[in-house]
């Protein structure tokens, strides 16, 4: 039994909630009366309510994010109908910025806006120890990171053995990108370096191996970044170690480059958000980015390091047309990062984009994840095509399963136009975007690209056959001996991509 339950619906089992663990670490005298119960998106809300009420809690705190808003709304509705006396406290980005008439705001007894570590213990005091009455919306003070307890002891043995370990050495972002919630932060704040590295050492000693840093701009503070990189470089003899950093693509100093080049294959992943190469778009969203420097850094990372490189592009940004997005996609694919995540612009409550953009210029889905439905440059039907393009690109391009096929079909043509034609064909042929088994997908890849009159079916067939042989070789490797599957596939030498 536990008086306090902290819960959420994580995107996947492998993605534990760091935010809830931060709350646990800050509970002080209430820690022994609290329990963490996590679910993923496959859990039915009534099953989650049953599991939580079995603990007979007096207070339930729940993290709300764009991927779980609908599930949390259903969960909260059931919880309050069955046990209205249980106090429900909601936090996280979606709760912080929800309007007062939002269902979540109506269901919650209290909502926390901002970073909740300091305030949550006070909420427990007020509710469980008959403290002063609290308002329904509570604005949390910005904590001094030097005074916060670290949450990493809250990762248990199952987390250490089977899940990514989310860690953070800093909070905030100095940039003001209009679509991003990080633009609301005043500045970058960093945790004290020496105590942080001691926590990383403890995680390693306890068996932690996959470290995912959630810092938004890890490489902006050179001294801080190089110290952390040096820490992991000194421990590369630890079997299975793997670290992930998000970096600003046009800011790689010589000292940071030196460290990145020293990581061996299968130990390092870098996420670099490009979002758009269009200067007009970048200006419209207040994003500072030196495109030429970003390109040069990407090419250097791909030739001089063994890092797995993940990049991002966003469809639907203000001023972006179909033609300019196509140019940006082709420009990025020529560089050949291992993954290009193509996402649809989302309307995130609280961002400058929401407050500054007239509703008639951008139409967003009112239901999570609040994706763009249409704007002045991209109508609804075009955005539906592009959403399928993004999904199929993830299956075929980002999966790393078809490098020779893509090299073959893109050669001499616009990669965007070739793949958009394939995406249109694939949807017409299957009316599916999910649950396509690999053998069937390979057959569809062969048929779909061969159906394009600019392609040579014989060459397409040969390339698909070559890719399938390569995939089967990777499939024979034992999981214990390799990093995550996509990274493993991308360890093979890249197929050169000529400019069209």
List keywords for this structure.
single chain; 500 residues; alpha/beta; Rossmann fold; pyruvate-formate lyase- activating enzyme; six-stranded parallel sheet; 20 helices; 16 strands; 42% helix; globular
Structure described in brief:
Helices cover 42% and strands 15% of the residues. The chain is built from 20 helices and 16 strands.
Overall description:
- It contains 20 helices and 16 strands.
- Helix 2 crosses helix 3, helix 15 (about 380-400) packs across helix 17 and helix 18 (about 440-450) packs antiparallel against helix 19.
- It is α/β, with parallel strands linked by helices and about 500 residues long.
- The protein has helices at about 20-25, 45-55, 70-80, 95, 105, 115-130, 155-160, 195-205, 220-235, 255-260, 280-285, 290-305, 320-335, 350-355, 380-400, 405-410, 415-430, 440-450, 455-475, 485-490, and strands at about 5-10, 35-40, 60-65, 85-90, 110-115, 135-140, 165, 170, 190, 210-215, 240-245, 270-275, 310-315, 340-345, 360-365, 370-375.
- It has three domains: about 5-145, Cobalamin-binding domain (Rossmann fold, 3-Layer(aba) Sandwich); about 155-380, tm_1862 like domain (pyruvate-formate lyase- activating enzyme); about 400-500, no CATH class.
- A six-stranded parallel β-sheet has the order 2-1-3-4-5-6, with helices on both faces. The protein has a six-stranded parallel β-sheet with strand order 7-10-11-12-13-14. Strands 8-9 form a two-stranded antiparallel ribbon.
